[in-house]
Write a structure and sequence with these properties.
This protein has one domain. It is 46% helix and 23% strand. The chain contains six helices and four strands. α2 packs antiparallel against α5 and α2 runs parallel beside α6.
Length: 133
């Protein structure tokens, strides 16, 4: 008798775990770069490594880079949101996926922000970073 209850419980838990995936996965994906991370960069290479896309460049008479404007994807993903989706999936036996997956598709839409970077005389080291408004 106890073995039958254990088997039913094991099957139920396995089914719940298999059904809980899309919204949890989408919520947990961390992409993009925060402004705080960008402000820590001291070189142009650091900006490029963080996924900054060049929009425009200016050079001086000696063809040394003086200014660039970048576009950077805002951060997406949240561990706490992923935990919430997982708990709701288990609590509703997977039914939460019907609402949670489309919501995450909308929430994790990639938004971008722009920055203006002024370089020191060597064209690589950053003098200032300004958030474009």
């Amino acid at each position: 008798m106890k073995k039958i209850h254990f088997n039913k419980l094991a099957i139920s838990i396995t089914a719940c775990l298999l059904l809980s995936s899309c919204s949890v996965f989408m919520a947990s994906q961390h992409t993009g770069t925060s402004i705080d991370e960008i402000e820590q960069c001291k070189t142009r290479t650091c900006l490029l490594n963080h996924g900054a896309e060049i929009i425009s460049q200016k050079t001086n008479k000696k063809d040394v880079l003086t200014e660039e404007i970048f576009q950077i994807q805002k951060p997406t993903g949240s561990a706490s949101r992923a935990v919430m989706h997982g708990a709701l999936d288990v609590a509703t036996l997977g039914i939460w996926e019907v609402a949670g997956t489309p919501m995450e598709g909308i929430i994790n839409r990639p938004d971008k922000y722009g920055i203006r970077v002024l370089y020191k005389s060597n064209g690589e080291d950053i003098k200032t970073i300004e958030l474009a408004r």
